Structure formats: structure tokens, C-alpha cells
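Dear colleagues,

As part of the handover before I leave the project, I'm documenting each prediction I ran so the next person doesn't have to rerun anything. This entry is a single chain, and its sequence is reproduced below.
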Amino acid sequence: MENSNWKFSGEIVQGFDSHILSSVPLYEQGHRLISNLSDFFLSNDSVCYELGCSTGSLLQSIAKHNSNKKIKFIGIDIEKDMVHYAQGKLQDYNNIEIVCDDILSVELEKSDMIISYYTIQFVKPRIRQLIFDKIYESLNWGGAFVLFEKVRGADARFQDILTALYTDFKLEQGFTKEEILDKTRSLKGVLEPFSTQGNIDLLQRAGFVDIMSIMKYVCFEGFLAIK
């Protein structure tokens, strides 16, 4: 892959789900956790958003889990190829809408749950606070923002440990050293993780007070923030 040239379009779309399953630890477990977590926040007539919904797999999982409730699910993604793929995949679900747009341009309905599953890390840091602020404002009181992100270490020593452990994970998944290096180079300036505290700071500045970690594996972490 070329330097700083990673894209979520073209050929990557068809194989995205299988690629991400072998790249992100506990990816499927995170889907199940969020689906189970939705029991506490989604009820009849709720609205649930996923920001950066990619192929729609997580929305599909949550919709199946809540099939006994009347819930409106809306997935937003800026990549046309991903949106087209997700729309085809979810065409039999009349309560799931997939929208191709920029999150900052979309007028969000009042909602009870908003999910960002490894998405914000690809958003330019200068606009992340604007997105968190918008999420907080659109949630109903008692609503949940579920945020999963790759996270940086708190200092250089911890970051070295995280990097080494994650490299070991990818090697165990069958990636070659060359593939790992190529992927790292392609993500330069594209993937910009914050630390755990950096993400918590964004949440708190938006207005969230009740925040906890709900999943953690080395440099991958899930947060639950309740308005």
C-alpha cells in the first residue's frame, strides 16, 4: 500500500468484514456486547444511530436483537461504496436506513442510543469535539453514546508495549511482516488515535458526566457515556 493512502472504498468494501475481524481483537464480541447493552436504552419508538456504519453488520446485529420492538435504526457513512453495499445487505430490514453523508452535515433526530464503532479515530482531530458536542445534544436525557476506539498509551513506554503486543496479535492472525508494515504506512495521517484520557476529555467537554469503560484489549477500548 502507498504511504498515507488507506481508503474505505473500492476493493476493500467486499472483504471489509473478514479483514476487520482479523485486524481488531474482540470485534465480534464488541458487536454482541453492544447488542446486549441496547436492552438498557432502546424501547418502542426509540431512534438509534450508528456513525460510520461501514457494511452495516453492527446495525444488523442490534436490529435482530431488538426484533420485538419498534425501533428506527439509522446508519451514516461518508463512503458511497460502503453505503451502497450496506443498503443492499440490509434491504430486507424496513426499520434500517443507511445514509451517505458527513456527520456534521446531518440533522440528527432525538435519539436514545448513538454508536461509533472504531470511527472517530479516522476523523480529523480538529473536528472531533464538534462531533461529540453534536452527539450529546441529540441524545435524549438518559440516552447512551457507545464509543469504541483504538487508543494510544499514556506515555512512550506504554505505547511501545501496546505496539509490540498488537504486532504480535496481527502476526498470530496470519499477517506477514510486510503486510503489517504496508498497513502501518498507509494509515499515517489517516488513523489518529487518542489516549483513553483524551477520549474521556472529549466526552466530558461535550457534557457527559457518567462515563465508564466497557471493553478493553491492549490498545482497543469501548466506552459507555450516558447523558
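The radius of gyration is 17 Å. The mean pLDDT is 92.

All the best with the project,
I.
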